[in-house]
């Protein structure tokens, strides 16, 4: 949800339809509501409603169609356009969405994306802008506690935000994390990351360095998806990816029917063939027992 031109359809197309950032320039305005169903992590279906942001549609959503639009919602993602000239109008629309969500879907989770953050080059100014939105939204969301992300289609921030959102929809996430951590310990890997196969969003990551950040995985996510799209453009397919040097060995392999796995080892005594064999041996366990 958000006003026209905020970038809602662009981000949906980039994440779920394999568009590049440049490709999104071809997209036109969304007419009314565009419905799409995406299979995610096995048998889970994401029913995504992309709501057009023109005034005539917004009035309809908030009045005649409000029960249809805001009923049975699991997640509301509100997109703020950083470039909008009328901040009060943006907040007014957000308030209406939250009020209707409170009436028809009180258990929904709310995420807000402050989009087009690439327009602010300095990192400290970006964080200051996000803090401003966090303070403003905290005062307006009594029933819901929205999580705020700064995003752009031109860097990995969009992948970070959507990874955080969708992984919280996976009902068996704690079980997946527990089994992935056991895999990491048994194989003596330094890092293990699970990517959703279609979107290449980060589902789960385990790092032997507990203090390490996960931002680099979002960079890998975006880079590999871009590489895979280019392979597709020349009628090829991404089978696997491998980097080896004196410091580490990195493997990205198909894992289950709905995931890829990334494994990094830093112990020079662990042969690459052993790591690949461990990945292959673990596949039936994750596929059959975790159903992913």
Description:
One of its GO terms (molecular function) is GTPase activity. Belongs to the GTR/RAG GTP-binding protein family. GTPase involved in activation of the TORC1 signaling pathway, which promotes growth and represses autophagy in nutrient-rich conditions. Component of the GSE complex. InterPro entries: Gtr1_RagA, P-loop_NTPase. This protein has 292 residues and is of the alpha+beta class. The chain has two domains: 8-167, 3-Layer(aba) Sandwich (Rossmann fold); 173-289, Beta-Lactamase (2-Layer Sandwich), CATH 3.30.450.190. 41% of the residues lie in helices and 22% in strands. The chain has nine helices and ten strands. It has helices at residues 8-16, 55-62, 66-70, 87-104, 123-138, 157-167, 173-187, 215-233, 272-289, and strands spanning 33-40, 44-51, 75-81, 109-115, 147-151, 191-196, 202-207, 241-244, 249-254, 259-265. A five-stranded antiparallel β-sheet has the order 7-6-10-9-8, sandwiched between helices. The chain is elongated and about 65 Å long. The two termini are 30 Å apart. The mean pLDDT is 89.
Give me the CATH architecture of the largest domain, please. Answer: 3-Layer(aba) Sandwich
Helix content class: 40-55%
Q: Biggest sheet, in brief?
A: 5 strands, antiparallel
CATH hierarchy, class of the largest domain: Alpha Beta
- How many helices? The count is 9
CATH fold-level assignment of the largest domain: Rossmann fold
- Compute the CA-based radius of gyration: 20 Å
Distance between the termini: 30 Å
What spatial form do the alpha-carbon principal axes imply? elongated
The CATH homologous superfamily of the largest domain: P-loop containing nucleotide triphosphate hydrolases
Query: Strand sequence of the main sheet, in spatial order?
Result: 7-6-10-9-8
Portion in beta strands: 15-25%
Domain count: 2
Ranges where pLDDT stays below 50 over 5 or more residues in a row are: none
- Which structural class should the secondary elements be placed in? alpha+beta
Strands, total number: 10
> What is the string of SSEs from the N terminus onward?
HEEHHEHEHEHHEEHEEEH
What value does the average pLDDT take? 89
Subunit structure: Component of the GSE complex.
Function: GTPase involved in activation of the TORC1 signaling pathway, which promotes growth and represses autophagy in nutrient-rich conditions.
Keywords: GTP-binding, Nucleotide-binding
InterPro entries: Gtr1_RagA (IPR006762), P-loop_NTPase (IPR027417)
């Amino acid at each position: 949800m958000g006003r026209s031109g905020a970038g809602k359809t662009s981000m949906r197309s980039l994440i779920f339809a394999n568009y590049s950032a440049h490709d999104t320039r071809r997209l036109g305005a969304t007419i009314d509501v565009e419905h799409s169903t995406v299979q995610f992590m096995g048998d889970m279906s994401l029913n995504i409603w992309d709501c057009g942001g023109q005034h005539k549609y917004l009035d309809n959503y908030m009045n005649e169609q409000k029960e249809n639009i805001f009923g049975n919602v699991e997640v509301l993602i509100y997109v703020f356009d950083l470039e909008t000239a009328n901040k009060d109008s943006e907040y007014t629309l957000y308030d209406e969405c939250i009020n209707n969500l409170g009436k028809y879907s009180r258990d929904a989770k709310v995420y807000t994306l402050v989009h087009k953050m690439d327009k602010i080059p300095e990192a400290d100014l970006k964080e200051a802008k996000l803090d401003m939105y966090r303070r403003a939204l905290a005062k307006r969301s009594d029933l819901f506690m929205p999580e705020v992300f700064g995003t752009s289609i031109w860097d990995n921030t969009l992948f970070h935000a959507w990874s955080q959102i969708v992984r919280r929809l996976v009902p068996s996430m704690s079980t997946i994390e527990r089994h992935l951590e056991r895999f990491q310990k048994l194989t003596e890997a330094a890092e293990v990351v699970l990517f959703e196969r279609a979107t290449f969003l980060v589902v789960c990551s385990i790092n032997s360095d507990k203090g390490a950040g996960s931002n680099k995985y979002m960079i890998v996510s975006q880079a590999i998806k871009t590489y895979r799209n280019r392979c597709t453009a020349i009628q090829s397919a991404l089978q696997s990816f491998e980097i080896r040097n004196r410091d580490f060995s990195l493997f990205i392999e198909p894992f289950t029917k709905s995931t890829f796995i990334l494994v990094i080892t830093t112990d020079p005594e662990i042969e690459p063939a052993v790591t690949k064999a461990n990945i292959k041996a673990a596949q039936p366990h994750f596929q059959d027992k975790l159903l992913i």
